[in-house]
Amino acid sequence: MGRSQVSLERQPATHPPAPFPRVTVLVSTASGWGRGIIKGISAFAHKHGPWLLQVEPEGERCLLPAGWRGDGVIARLSTPKTAESLLRAGVPIVNVSSIALAGRAAAVPRVCSDVAAGGTLAARHFLDRGFKHFGYVGLQKLSYVREHREAFSTLLGEKGCACHVLALGDRPEVADIPASLLEWLRKLPKPVGVLTWNNSQGRAVIHACRLAGLLVPEDVAVLSGNDDPLLCECCLPQLSAIGVATEQIGETAAELLQRLMQGKSVPQAPVLVPPIGIIARQSTDALLIQNPALLQALGFIREHATEPIQVEDILQAVPIARRSLEPFFQESLGRSPADEIRRVRLERAKHLLATTDMPIPKVAHASGFGTGEYLATLMRRTTGMTPLKYRAAARGH
After folding, report:
1. What is the Cα–Cα distance from 37 to 40, expressed in whole angstroms?
2. Which one, of 55, 48, 43, 39, lies nearest residue 20 by Cα?
3. What domains lie within the chain, and their CATH numbers?
4. Which has the closest alpha carbon to 236: 261, 253, 215?
5. What is the DSSP string of 109-169?
6. pLDDT tens digits, one per residue of 13-62
7. 360-367 and 337-355 helices cross at what angle (nearest 10)?
8. Which of 273, 286, 256 is nearest to 113 (CA)?
């Protein structure tokens, strides 16, 4: 049987009614994205179920047979044909794809990553490191990839920077790098920050740089639009990526499905889940600042941000007048020294929230903030979430 024809086994007609909901998950386990979503669905089912979960590793390739009996489906709906096949089952469905389908499929509740927020986050990541030249690699015919790229290039355009674009398939073969990618990389102005739609393209760009004699990240810094720790850390150098909140997508999708199975209403508009942040690895570990005094000031901030430092402390450590320091920061980074101190502290706090169980007051203290209340104010202002909600989102709870 071909892969495109794989189907679920038909349940026997004599099977007794299940005492709890029977939910089929049609999300592929071949990627970190899919596994994260399934993990989130499973976590919800254990906390609010129990559910009888049937997870199909082949994802949407598995079609529901005519005799299938279940109470709900969570699936990645990528084509109208797949959507129609599932809709015929007459059970509640939740879609976890970023693809916006037309027709009857448009009415299926959808939970997906906020790809525009990811593109904006990537632009800030490169701008924070002083890059002036940028590129984007992705399959441009897909609407959600275009949305990702446009958010990236829009913020760069607001800073007076252009973005060079190359169309490349979702799964380029590292063993057979396209000549067009090599030529494109060689012609880009250097140093350049390149964002790719996914980690397959990111790994291909890194390999192409090696073939082209370009250094990563010194000549070309590479950032993937989604993270798969196993694959991203297999690269040399390791590939930085945007942390997509896949577990939160899965839990939210499961919550919507439960509401549907209970006959309750759910949002008609897609539920967009923001990324949890940048997973910084070696492929973007570059700081392209030419001014020695500014480099020294940035180094001082990174080393001492968790201490109660102020701009005056920077001026004592760096031989520069305040009237010169402020313009250097604004021209190179688009923010003041005080803004940079807050930014570094906030990134430290986000890391601690995502990776530890430290109480909020201790996170605030360890990040250089005076109080948990001040940290909460900045978190709400910059992320729209409280520290506790950010921690839950980062962990998929």
Report:
1. 5
2. 48
3. 3-113+246-275 (3.40.50.2300), 115-244+278-284 (3.40.50.2300), 292-395 (1.10.10.60)
4. 215
5. -BEEE-HHHHHHHHHHHHHHTT--EEEEEE-TTSHHHHHHHHHHHHHHHHTT--EEEEE--
6. 444 455 788 999 999 998 889 999 999 999 999 999 789 998 888 887 77
7. 140
8. 273
